[in-house]
Write a sequence for this structure.
């Protein structure tokens, strides 16, 4: 079971994922993200990837699926502080620019309501 | 040249610990732990393809990875399954070096949720070839590694031990 630690900021949820995002847990993470987007009043889910040590194409595929579903509902999936390795995987898969990315805490605080 | 062989049952639950073990072997040759990431990524993608496509659902079979390290030159991976191969991602034919250049591959739309594994492999490897037969379906991956990325101390030990033989 994927473990997402939640920080509730009203219409914005910050969900921190730890460990890896791969074929091993891609389906569970996708299901959890879709549950978060189904919550009433949620506009954005910010997925904190700062503690994700490894991500492969299946993990990326799950983020693409969750993001596409969110967009269809008028919501957004944002990625927060992905590691250099995760960014490299996204670049290699030619997905640079597909996800809105928050590089650091300053970016996150600018998004969150006062 | 150093050769290693790893085997496991191709399952979602087993392939990551399996690949981490291979990555640890590769990392021991490198100057910094972060340098192993592209090597671990291509190994993970190749093994994940076996998990997803090689065997019928509910009937998992074996996956074998042979790793050949040529210090100061590069590493070669041979990833073998004994199932139906990967029907949705046909292997490039044997002997065609660099056959899987990303420019030759069909594009993956940004919204696609799968199909990026082989593209990542092709992008990060210097040559990708495949063969299929009674000895299994094998994906051969070659990765050149720049000389400055190799761990110097490890090479010294290796050369000393070789010279004693």
């Amino acid at each position: 079971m994927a473990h997402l630690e939640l920080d509730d900021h009203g219409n914005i949820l910050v969900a921190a994922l730890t460990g890896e995002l791969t074929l091993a847990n891609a389906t569970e993470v996708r299901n959890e993200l879709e549950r978060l987007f189904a919550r009433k009043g949620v506009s954005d889910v910010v997925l904190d990837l700062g503690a994700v040590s490894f991500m492969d194409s299946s993990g990326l595929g799950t983020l693409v699926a969750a993001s596409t579903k969110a967009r269809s509902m008028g919501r957004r999936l944002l990625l927060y502080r992905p590691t250099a390795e995760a960014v490299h995987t996204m670049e290699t898969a030619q997905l640079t620019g597909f996800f809105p990315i928050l590089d650091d805490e300053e970016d996150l605080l600018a998004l969150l309501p006062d | 040249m150093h050769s290693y062989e790893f085997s496991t049952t191709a399952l979602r639950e087993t392939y990551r610990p399996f690949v981490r073990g291979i990555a640890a072997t590769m990392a021991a040759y490198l100057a910094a732990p972060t340098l192993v990431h592209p090597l671990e990524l291509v190994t993970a993608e190749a093994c994940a393809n076996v998990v997803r496509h090689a065997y019928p659902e509910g009937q998992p079979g074996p996956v074998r990875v042979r790793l050949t390290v040529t210090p100061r030159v590069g590493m070669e991976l041979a990833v073998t399954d004994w199932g139906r191969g990967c029907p949705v991602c046909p292997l490039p034919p044997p002997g065609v070096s660099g056959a899987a250049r990303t420019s030759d591959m069909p594009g993956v739309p940004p919204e696609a949720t799968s199909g990026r594994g082989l593209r990542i492999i092709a992008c990060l490897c210097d040559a990708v070839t495949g063969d299929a037969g009674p000895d299994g379906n094998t994906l051969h991956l070659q990765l050149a590694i720049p000389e400055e990325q190799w761990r110097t101390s490890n090479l010294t030990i290796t050369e000393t031990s070789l010279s004693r033989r």
User: Anything to note?
Assistant: Chain B has four helices and five strands.
